[in-house]
Design brief:
32% helix; signal
Length: 245
């Protein structure tokens, strides 16, 4: 297994956790078919963060939660010999909870430790966490940007009111110029954020043989010490469990 992990790290020297993984970050010339004849799970560390993978009969799935487990990057690499269609509905997310604990503030916070300490499985249950669709997520982000701009404008107005007097015409001109520049910079940042979602959010795709596709999903997080990403491809389910403590 160690050799497999090392090999995949070389093949996948792809994972830049600061941004969504692009398909061309994996060495497309590397032939990983031989090590994927049976289902193999493994993990490695990239930039201080855990990454998990599963190799199964030419299919390679990589899951990287990165710095924010609510926006994991998922890579599918196809060397199965045939194309397949993949829909984002094939991705689901779950958190393990302690039975009998109702509060969402504490329900998921000790489950990983309980399991690691040898706790009984019957005392643990699994909750599904809804994933944002592409349209809902982009709408959510646009709303956040709009509110951010409104609040930013209110703050600027308050600062202007405190600093402006009839004798400070020059200062007012400088403030207006600074505000205009800040608005332009914010607009560029908002546009770049939307572009990342448009380009990177998982949508339905045909994954042709000898190609790969990467993207991310997003969901509302909970206070948890664990998370499970479940990915179904061609009727086969692959699960990746991360413990945070």
């Amino acid at each position: 297994m160690k050799k497999t992990i090392i090999y995949l790290c070389a093949v996948c020297g792809l994972l830049s956790l600061a941004q969504p993984i692009s398909a061309n970050e994996i060495n497309e010339n590397a032939d990983t078919t031989n090590i994927m004849l049976v289902k193999q799970y493994g993990s490695f560390i990239k930039d201080g963060r855990p990454v998990q993978y599963c190799a199964d009969k030419g299919l390679l799935i990589i899951v990287s939660p990165g710095n924010d487990y609510t926006k994991p990057v998922i890579v599918l690499r196809n060397k199965t010999g045939k194309a397949f269609d993949f829909k984002p509905e094939g991705i689901s997310v779950h958190a393990l909870a302690m039975k009998g604990v109702k509060s969402k503030d504490t329900r998921y916070l000790t489950t990983a430790k309980y399991i690691k300490d040898g706790g009984k499985k019957e005392n643990v249950e699994r909750d599904s966490l809804p994933i944002y669709s592409y349209s809902k997520y982009i709408s959510k982000v646009r709303n956040q940007q709009a509110w951010g701009n409104v609040l930013g404008g209110l703050a600027d107005g308050a600062i202007d009111a405190m600093t402006y007097t009839p004798q400070s015409t020059t200062d007012r001109i400088l403030l207006d110029q600074n505000n205009e520049q800040r608005y332009k910079e914010n607009a560029k940042e908002d546009e770049a954020q939307i572009k990342k979602i448009v380009d990177g959010y998982w949508k339905e795709n045909t994954i042709f043989n000898n190609t790969e596709h990467s993207g991310f999903i997003a969901f509302k997080g909970v206070k948890t010490d664990n998370i499970i990403y479940s990915i179904s491809v061609n009727g086969e389910k692959y699960e990746f469990t991360f413990y945070f403590n």
